[in-house]
Write a structure and sequence with these properties.
heterodimer; A: 116 residues; mainly beta; 6-stranded mixed beta sheet; 12 strands; globular; B: 113 residues; 4-stranded antiparallel beta sheet
């Protein structure tokens, strides 16, 4: 079964620090990749997604992610975090299974705390 | 604006009772999903549906059931609630099975005592 690994459970940064959250997946075929964010007390919302083309994708609020196929990775980055980025971040994968059933598999999440 | 709503937002029930959580979307999406979110596990798929009368089991479907009688609604039923089912439940919908983002509801916090 495919899996999604997020390396950091909890990351604490000061405002203006740079952020990189790691994500690796186990599926060997073609995949669609997503990063979702969950702000405190709110539902999940999409940050960015990758389907094909340029492996560097830009999302909302200054976030970007780079797909490195050889490393099965899709790391999330932001050059300078703000207090309002405090949230939980989830990496997710949909594989091309060819069977018509496409299930979104989530990583366990990384909690980001930004200190003012 | 289109939206996805869940009710109730909070529920406390006793072990052994049947519980139904409602999910309603106005996106007119064919695809609907139920997830549970637990600390240390992220989100795990319970059941999903690709259209009316279609239902499929996800990763953690034991003890849960769904039915899809129309496009807008996918209620989740816990047949006999157990303490292990204490969790936050999220409903989601999407237009495409493969490529579209999923839109999530606000969640239902369920406590089984």
């Amino acid at each position: 079964a495919q899996s999604v690994s997020q390396h950091n459970h909890h990351v604490i940064l000061s405002e203006a620090a740079s952020l990189e959250l790691g994500c690796n997946y186990s599926y060997g075929g073609t995949v669609n990749l997503f990063w979702y964010v969950q702000y405190p007390g709110q539902h999940l919302q999409l940050l960015l997604k990758y389907f094909s083309g340029d492996p560097l994708v830009k999302g909302i609020k200054g976030f970007e992610a780079e797909f490195i196929k050889s490393k099965f990775s899709f790391n999330l980055r932001k050059p300078s975090v703000q207090w309002s980025d405090t949230a939980e971040y989830f990496c997710a994968v949909i594989p091309y299974s060819g069977a018509g059933s496409y299930q979104l598999t989530f990583g366990k999440g990384t909690k980001l705390s930004v200190i003012p | 604006d289109a939206e996805i709503t869940q009710s109730p937002r909070h529920k406390i029930t006793e072990t052994g009772r049947q519980v139904t959580l409602a999910c309603h979307q106005t996106w007119n999406h064919n695809n609907m999903f139920w997830y549970r979110q637990d600390l240390g596990h992220g989100l795990r798929l319970i059941h999903y549906s690709y259209g009316v009368q279609d239902t499929n089991k996800g990763e953690v479907s034991d003890g849960y059931s769904v039915s899809r009688s129309n496009t807008e609604d996918l209620p989740l039923t816990l047949e006999s609630a157990a303490s292990s089912q204490t969790s936050v439940y999220f409903c989601a919908s999407s237009a495409s099975r493969l490529s579209d983002e999923q839109y999530f509801g606000p969640g239902t916090r369920l406590t089984v005592t």
